[in-house]
Automatic annotation (TrEMBL):
PANTHER family xrefs: SIDEROPHORE TRIACETYLFUSARININE C ESTERASE, SIDEROPHORE-DEGRADING ESTERASE (EUROFUNG)
Family membership: Belongs to the esterase D family.
Highest taxon in the source lineage: Bacteria
Annotated signal peptide: 1-17
Listed Pfam families: Esterase
Record-linked Gene3D superfamilies: alpha/beta hydrolase
Keyword terms of this UniProt record: Hydrolase, Signal
Protein name: Alpha/beta hydrolase
Amino acid sequence: MRFVFLLCALLSLTVLAEEQRFTLAAGLIDEAVTVQVALPESYRHSDSFHYPLLLVLDGSTQFHHVASSVGFLSTYAIVPEMIVVGISTRDRLKYFTPTEPEDFAARAGKADVYNRFIAEELLPTLSERYRLAPYRMIFGHSLAGLYSSYQALGPASSFNAAIAISPSLWWDDGALITDYDKYQTRERKAPMRWFLSMASEPGEMAQAFDAMLQKLETKKPSKLQVFNARFARETHDSTPLIGNVEGLKAIFSGWNAVPQVDAMSLQQLQAFYRGKTAEYGYTFPLSAHQFNVYGLKAAYEGQTAWGVAILEQGVEKFARSEILWDSLATAYTLNQQLDKAMAASIKALQLARLHGSVFLEEIMAQNRALEQKLSQP
């Protein structure tokens, strides 16, 4: 409990992401697409660290709450730090549906065209502008949830994980379900993780959801791990808020190396994430928030040398992070290395002033406390 209280005091700090926006002229879908981007606060603290991507469909309505959830959860190392990108299309029916029923001739069934837009226009543009890691997720609700489900099952996905909130699996008499057998035998090169949920929707929405779960339970697709949930107290409109949080937590269940107050050494942490490679198809390097959380946990739980080693590695990787330098000062103090603690605190204070940091007062407080300790005979 001592650690939990102190960590909350030091990290009551869900860090705000930097938001950017630009317009992409998308030739394949003949639209000018508004692209919203939330960069982790730690993005500016390194020139070399690459971040997983979470693509949010219907970004005009869904982007901000998803980006906020990622910011909060990643602060405590529950999920990785990610670059969150929101996009919208004015013709959802055409591009989010994988089949073209006769009643919707020329108005639907162009999901594969949207796949090409993402793979050939959007992702290359994002990769040119930002440091993207080769791990990608997609989030969709309702008709966009049908499209994200198609990414989990279909033949031409650019993603490693998909979140589908109240997906419109009823589309075209449940075409994704009817065609399940061909998707079930699809050969995947890398693991895929899929979270799908249903709220209190009645009728064909719920029936199609149940039918898909039955298919998944009967014939599990190769290299596809499925998570599902029901939110009976939510409506179709309210469910994305809880759904995105639960989806993220499900996709990354077991990903947090130290979810409680236990501690690991730096070597143990690195080995833990190497061990996750087969599960995710990607080796996650330690991010700034992970260095911070795991280093402080070790220091406060009596493994001060471990905490120092973790945080020293953290400031080596994220040299411009006032948070990591301040936490390193804390670890040095607990390890009775007051001169090093003061040097780290001075560095944290310089960076906090340079960045106009929201943590300036807390960093100044530790700096003053160290000055008093060092001035004592």
